[in-house]
Design a protein that fits this description.
heterodimer; A: 2 helices; disordered N terminus; B: about 280 residues; Immunoglobulin-like; 4-stranded antiparallel sheet; 1 helix; globular
Chain lengths: ~180, ~280
């Protein structure tokens, strides 16, 4: 929670609203504001997918329902259809060294992706994160106009893996389909 | 009643959206893009997009324009077909609309207006021209705790938000023809195949309403979905039949240009289209 930031925005909103009320345009202004307000699209990362320190020779997995899973949220037009895709790396690198990373279905952990239109990780629906996800934003007014995605993965450091902080790039795309 | 000026309304709305996000859990990286659909016309040849960094770290944001439109694959799932080099028959505006600035670094809470300026070719025929605006944001590098002798792993993130842009010149009109409507029960759901082709020189943006009507003429369930027809599409919809008892029904389909997520001034009118098909849910 960020109460100071929220309070600041509310103060700004109040200042913006006053002149409209002075000119007796409350109804029209509010109606118009609600219309446009619903059209913003936000994608955000709440938790990064961070494997931390791993042991060479021992694969490390993070399931999509684990506390360490990457967590993403989409806010948008309520009930709008969005297509969410991930471009995922196959290796993490540091300098010339690399380490395999996988998001493919695992016989034990299962699928590494999970999604739900509410922030309920325990009840989310698992899926394979390399496949596109076509979903609808939760049909509620802001800030409950949400869709959540959780991503896990598996890294496989080799025996004798060179020390270092291995990183890779994940690209998350969110597209309004207009449907 | 007088409405607020358009730019003011958008500013207020973005503040509202940002305020709403501010009371959410802390976002490591987040970018707000508004509006979700941009409309420009040949008279002003300008448009704008607002970007807000609603995260807690600085974001480097870049803006690109690429031609694209919604299409469907063989499973009836919608996707945005992006084409790097569209041929001359495609109504692409991507090559002649520029964004300023194309790149910016936004501090947490910072807002950036991206101006769009069109320089269409001379003799551009009347019609609607399309592009997609791609806002790509990259946050700070992942902070993984590790020493000189340890192996650690983490991921950096890039967020891409893709919205539509429509540029209208002169007389624009739209319509739609329904080329397919089939429905059948699939497990505990109703599977509907819907095919459509656009008429006119502008995309059809509307709403599709399905109503399942019993043999007694009483409606049993109703589903509503926005629809956008740029090029021919063949869409598969699946709706739950939880509350519908087994039996024989008529599925009524009504397609109109009503849209509650778009400014009414940007809606192009068209004649409603209705169809119906028999369904057995046993």
């Amino acid at each position: 929670m960020r109460p100071p930031t929220a309070a600041l925005f509310l103060v700004v909103l109040a200042l913006l609203a006053v002149p409209e009320r002075m000119f007796g345009q409350v109804t029209a202004s509010l109606g118009a504001t609600v219309l446009i307000d619903n059209t913003a699209l936000t994608i955000g990362q709440i938790n990064g997918l961070d494997f931390g320190i791993v042991v060479p020779g021992t694969p490390t997995k993070i399931g999509p329902k684990a506390a360490l899973a990457g967590k993403f949220v989409l806010h948008g037009v309520k009930n709008a259809e969005a297509r969410i895709t991930f471009a995922l790396p196959t290796v993490l690198t540091v300098g010339p060294n690399s380490m395999p990373i996988s998001f493919a279905d695992d016989p034990i952990t299962g699928k590494f992706g999970c999604h739900r239109n509410q922030d309920q990780q325990a009840n989310c629906t698992t899926y394979t994160p390399s496949t596109p996800l076509v979903v609808r934003i939760r049909n509620n007014a802001p800030p409950q106009n949400t869709f959540y995605v959780w991503i896990g993965g598996k890294v496989s450091p080799a025996v004798g893996q060179q020390p270092g902080t291995y990183t890779g790039l994940v690209t998350m795309s969110a597209v309004y389909t207009g449907n | 009643m007088r409405l607020m000026p358009r730019s003011r309304r958008l500013t207020v709305s973005i503040a509202l959206a940002a305020a709403a996000l501010a009371i959410q859990p802390v976002l490591l990286e987040a970018i707000l893009v508004a509006p979700h659909a941009v409309f420009m016309d040949h008279r002003s040849r300008t448009g704008q997009v607002f970007l807000v960094n609603t995260g807690d770290t600085p974001e480097e944001v870049s803006i690109d324009l690429k031609y694209g439109y919604p299409a469907t694959d063989s499973t009836g799932t919608v996707f945005i077909k992006l084409i790097d080099q569209p041929d001359s028959t495609e109504p692409s505006a991507a090559a002649w609309i520029k964004a300023y600035p194309r790149r910016a670094v936004l501090a947490p809470g910072q807002r950036q207006v991206v101006r769009l300026l069109a320089t269409p070719p001379a003799g551009l025929p009347d019609g609607e021209y399309w592009s997609r605006i791609i806002a790509t944001s990259r946050g700070s590098k992942v902070a993984v705790v590790g020493g000189d002798s340890t192996v650690s792993a983490g991921l950096t993130l890039e967020l891409r938000t893709i919205i539509s842009l429509s540029y209208r010149k002169g007389a624009v009109h739209t319509g739609v023809s329904v080329t397919d409507l089939r429905a059948n029960r699939h497990a505990d759901s109703l599977e509907i195949w819907f095919g459509a082709e656009r008429q006119g020189n502008a995309a059809f943006l509307g709403t599709l309403v399905y109503e399942l009507v019993g043999e007694d003429g009483k409606p049993r369930d109703q589903w509503e979905t926005p629809v956008a027809v740029y090029h021919p599409l063949s869409r598969r919809y699946v709706f739950p039949l939880d509350s519908v008892p087994d039996g024989r029904y008529t599925l009524r389909m009504r397609l109109t240009t009503a849209r509650n997520d778009l400014d009414q001034r940007n809606i192009l009118p068209a004649e409603p289209v209705t169809r119906s098909v028999d369904v057995e849910t046993r």
